[in-house]
Every structure is written in C-alpha cells, then in structure tokens.
Design brief:
Elements: E1 4-8, H1 12-23, E2 27-31, E3 43-46, H2 48-56, H3 60-66, E4 68-70, E5 76-78, E6 83-85, E7 95-99, H4 100-109, E8 116-117, E9 125-127, E10 132-134, E11 137-139, E12 141-144, H5 151-156, E13 164-175, E14 183-187, E15 190-197, E16 201-209, H6 220-227, H7 235-240, E17 248-254, E18 262-263, E19 266-268, H8 271-274, H9 283-300, H10 304-334, H11 339-348, H12 351-358, H13 364-367
Parallel strand pairs: 1-2, 1-12, 2-8, 5-14, 12-19
Antiparallel strand pairs: 3-7, 4-7, 5-6, 9-10, 10-11, 13-16, 13-17, 14-15, 15-16, 18-19
Helix pairs in contact: 1-4, 1-9, 2-3, 2-9, 9-10
Bound molecules: flavin-adenine dinucleotide (FAD).
C-alpha cells in the first residue's frame, strides 16, 4: 500500500515519521507552526534502540558521525565529588550525545525537498471513512506529532487529562568546553548531568524538585549557579562558561497513559501520544521507534485501518512502560528523603554488578530491535 500522509509537527517525532514514510514509498506533507526551523534546544542522548531505529530511517550512519559517545550512570558522583560508581565503561559507548539541533538538522536534510511547510499551524482535523484532512489539505492518514501540548490530542481525545507536572524543574545549557566525560551527579533534591557534544561543546542539565510549576527567575543562569555553587568541578565552571541567554528553564511534565493512540485515520506519535519525564533519555528515541513501527505496518498491512490498529497495539505497552519507569527514576534520583539511602546503595553495589546492570543488553529498553523498512 502507498499513499499520502499529513504529519503535524516537525520535531524529531514528525521528522522521523516523514523519513519513515519516505522509506516505504509514501509521500508526506509536514505542517510546522514555527515560522522557521532553526537552532533549537540543548543536548540529548540516544540509546541503542533509537540508533537502530535511525538506521531504518537511513540516517543512522550520519547520526553516529555527529553523536559523541557518552556515559552517565557509568560515572556517578555525589555533589561533593565522591565517586559512587566509576565502572569501566563499555567501549565504544552504546550511548551517543547530540546537540538537539544537530540531530534535527540531519533528519531534516534527509527528507525530499518541499515536504516541510513552516508557518503552518494545524487548528482543525476532520475525517471520513476514506480520508483525513487538516484544514483544506486532505490525505489518507494524519500523523499528529505535535508534542506534549498536542492540538490533535485536545481535539480528538477531549477526555484525555492535561499533561501532569511531576514536581521537578530543569535548567539546561550548552557551554564551549571540550573533552568533558559524560557523568551524573546526585545531590539532595537534585541531579546534574553532563554529556560531551561535537565541536568542542558540553551539554548540562540540572534537574531539581519544585513545589509548583511556573516559578521563573530574572537570571536563570545565576539561579542554576546558585543551586550548585558548592558542587564538585567542573559543574560551577561549566555553568559559568554558558552564555546566559542559552540557559533554558523548563518544568518537567508527562502524560497519563492514553487508552489508544489512534482515532479513525489519525495517529498520535511521540510526545503527543506519550510525553515522558526525561530521566531515561528516551522521549525522542521512543518517537523515532513509533515512526518505524507505524511505517512498517503501513508497508505490510492491507489497509490504513489495520496498520493503525497494529501500531497502537505495538506501541502503547512499550511507551507507557518506559514513561512509567522514567517518572519513577526521576522521583528516586531527586528525592531528598531517599538521597542517603540511594547513594549508599549505589556505592555498596560491587562494580562488576553495576557494570553488568548498565550493559546495553541488560536493559530491556535498549534491547529493542526495529522492524525492517525497505
Ligand atoms: C529536559 C529534557 C531532556 C530530554 N532529554 C532527552 C534525551 O536525552 N533523549 C531523548 O530521546 N529524549 C529526551 N527528551 C525528550 C524529547 O525532547 C522529546 O520526547 C521529543 O523532543 C519529542 O519530540 P516530538 O517531535 O514528539 O515533539 P516536539 O519536539 O515537541 O515537536 C512538536 C513540534 O510540533 C509543532 N507543533 C505543535 N503544535 C502544532 C500545530 N498545531 N500545528 C503545527 N505544528 C505544531 C511544534 O512547533 C514542534 O516543532 C528530553 C526532554 C526534556 C524536557
């Protein structure tokens, strides 16, 4: 079966969907409300499951050239610098770190010219038995990859609960510092993550508990620095080296599980379907998996309807389990009450056991293999 799909949103999920459709001989029109697609966000990591899915999209090799091997849970410390685990990492590291804009750009550049329409906001969706439409534009299928605040979800899943604030908030930045290894530092009520990036840069994220969403500061960089002023090197220097206007502050939210990701000829994909806490570094990776599974179903199933049923059944359990796990990981890593117990447990775990626990094949999320496209 071939056809034409409208994809709402040109984030990583929407671009992955368009690339996957291209691989199976479908056409796609990607509607993006932003006037242009520029330098966005800070850093992120991609795990082996997502890298295999990128291979199926035909961009795995380029992604591996841009991504920088990193470690987080192989290099764990407390705020005063004490090493909790310094497991000899698996070489080469299965985890790659990217500037979000770099990953986004390489996906965008691999799409046929003219597929993305910027400055195009989807405000209404309609459908009948044979087609689905966004405004005046009609197609065989609509893939709504319009993020955690999805308009499509609000229109077609009116009973779905709004995204939930998880009691955590995060500062993110990218500094021009070369050669820092990936690491994670656990403090009471907060953790600090570092990933090396290409072109001599380092990404950092400070995730901390918060009583309520929406608390903002006149100088977010100064606030992140204040909260970590006594933390070990290189944390204060890393924040100091970050341009103040490049520090992003966001509240952490996720979505309660939806009973289905499909409504007629409309499928939710990525954060629109299953926005999750970032603590497993899986949100974008799961959206790339979604895209490959959806396209594989469209390529093999006799109708759009059966393909979407297959997609829904295949993706809901995995993405919702991952989201549940991420929510729990984030709560545990930032709990003040459990901080001492957590750090003691990690410190007392034998290094060999810890190493086995973080190996790529020990992790059911990382073990996932995509269906073949093409
Ligand atoms: C602090 C933090 C760290 C993270 N770290 C990682 C990580 O290390 N690894 C990882 O895999 N994931 C990570 N994630 C998760 C990841 O960022 C998201 O899961 C991913 O970006 C979701 O992609 P998406 O395309 O589904 O949605 P989005 O990136 O939100 O893209 C949605 C797009 O749709 C557009 N849009 C919205 N509404 C409309 C409309 N009505 N019409 C047209 N266009 C519309 C938006 O402008 C946007 O471009 C992290 C998230 C956070 C918050």
């Amino acid at each position: 079966m071939t056809g034409h799909a409208i994809v709402i949103g040109a984030g990583i999920g929407g671009l992955a969907a368009a690339l996957a459709l291209h691989r199976i001989g479908w056409r796609a029109t990607v509607l993006e409300r932003a006037p242009e697609l520029g330098e966005i966000g800070a850093g992120m990591s991609q795990a082996p499951n997502a890298l295999r899915a990128l291979d199926e999209l035909g961009v795995g090799e380029r992604a591996r050239q841009v991504g920088v091997p990193t470690h987080a849970t192989a290099n764990l410390r407390t705020a005063n610098g004490r090493h909790l685990q310094r497991a000899h990492p698996v070489e080469p590291s299965p985890l790659l770190a990217f500037h979000r804009a770099d990953l986004h750009r390489l996906m965008m550049e691999s799409l046929p010219a003219g597929w993305i329409r910027t400055g195009s906001e989807a405000t209404g969706i309609s459908q009948d038995r044979g087609s689905a439409a966004v405004g005046e534009l009609s197609a065989d299928l609509v893939i709504a990859a319009d993020g955690i605040g999805s308009t499509a979800r609000r229109l077609l899943w009116p009973d779905a609960p709004a995204p939930r604030f998880l009691g955590r908030t995060a500062w993110l930045g990218v500094a021009p510092i070369d050669g820092l290894p990936g690491s994670m530092t656990l403090g009471p009520g907060a953790y600090f993550l570092i990933h090396p990036l290409s072109r001599g840069r380092a990404y950092w994220a400070l995730v901390a508990t918060a009583d309520r969403p929406g608390i903002r500061h006149a100088d977010e960089k100064a606030e992140a620095a204040r909260r970590t002023q006594d933390w070990h090197d290189p944390i204060p220097g890393l924040i100091d080296a970050t341009p103040a206007d490049a520090v992003i502050h966001i509240d952490i939210r996720d979505l309660d599980p939806l009973p289905t990701y499909v409504n007629g000829r409309v499928a939710l994909l990525g954060d629109a379907a299953h926005a999750m806490s970032p603590d497993r570094g899986q949100g974008a990776g799961q959206s790339i998996e979604d895209a490959v599974v959806l396209a594989a179903a469209l390529a093999t199933e006799p109708t759009v309807e059966t393909a979407l049923r297959h997609y829904d059944a295949a993706r809901r359990p995995r993405t919702q389990t991952t989201a549940r796990g991420a929510r729990a990981d984030g709560r545990r890593a930032t709990s003040r009450a459990a901080h001492r117990a957590l750090t003691t447990m990690i410190r007392l775990t034998p290094a060999s056991l810890w190493r086995r626990g973080i190996a790529p094949d020990a992790n059911p999320t990382w073990r996932w293999r995509p269906p073949r496209l093409g």
